[in-house]
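Cross-posting from the chemistry board since nobody answered there.

I work mostly on the small-molecule side, so proteins are not my area. We synthesized flavin mononucleotide and want a rough idea of how it might sit in this target. Sequence and SMILES are below. Is it possible to get a predicted 3D structure of the two together?
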Amino acid sequence: MTTAIIDPASADVDTGETLGAETGAGADAGVETGSPDFDPRELRDALGQFATGVVVITTVTPEGEFVGVTANSFTSVSLDPPLVLWCPGRHLRSLPHFERAERFAINVLASEQHELSRRFATPDGDKFSGVPVRVGLGGVPVLEGALATFECRTTALHEAGDHVIHLGHVERFRHDPAKPLVFHGGRYHEAARHDAG
Ligand SMILES: Cc1cc2nc3c(=O)[nH]c(=O)nc-3n(C[C@H](O)[C@H](O)[C@H](O)COP(=O)(O)O)c2cc1C
């Protein structure tokens, strides 16, 4: 395991070592911290330790073209009012469509839908070819077989570095009991119930 550390006293950055109490680096000695500016790949690997589900975000252009992107940045934000968000990257070809979208849908993928995750994470090709969808609110496609779907109206777009925070108000949702697709450490996993409950 590689650890990126920053000495809070000197602000010198180093890698490959853990800042231990014996270094006498002050009150934070023994706490491992990383500098996001130092090694983006290390930061990405560390962030990848946070296990998530996988969603496909969908919308429709004014010309009626379906748009979809795989994402794991989906988060529930508020129950009252019902708000959710996801974070499209500035690099996405489909970003202009989401920035203009009045409505979008979040499709939470089931374990067996891993091929859909790969397909919607690949920029080229007709992502929707052969994919069973129904047309939801505002003409936005909703993927059949998803664990849960949240049909949303865009309420805000916030600049956030190399990503955008796309906030939506949930207008309609549904869910089914099934196994989720899990993403952790850059790989797909299946969820197993823990002994703890
Ligand atoms: C599991 C997984 C999660 C992803 N999460 C995001 C995300 O949250 N935001 C994002 O911008 N891209 C994310 N991506 C990458 C996009 O799906 C990928 O860049 C896609 O090709 C974008 O399509 P587009 O360029 O046609 O818009 C993720 C990819 C995978 C496989």
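Reply from a structural biologist on the board:
Welcome over. Reading the output above for you: The first helix runs from residue 40 to 47. The chain has two domains: 4-47, 52-183. Happy to explain the token format if needed.
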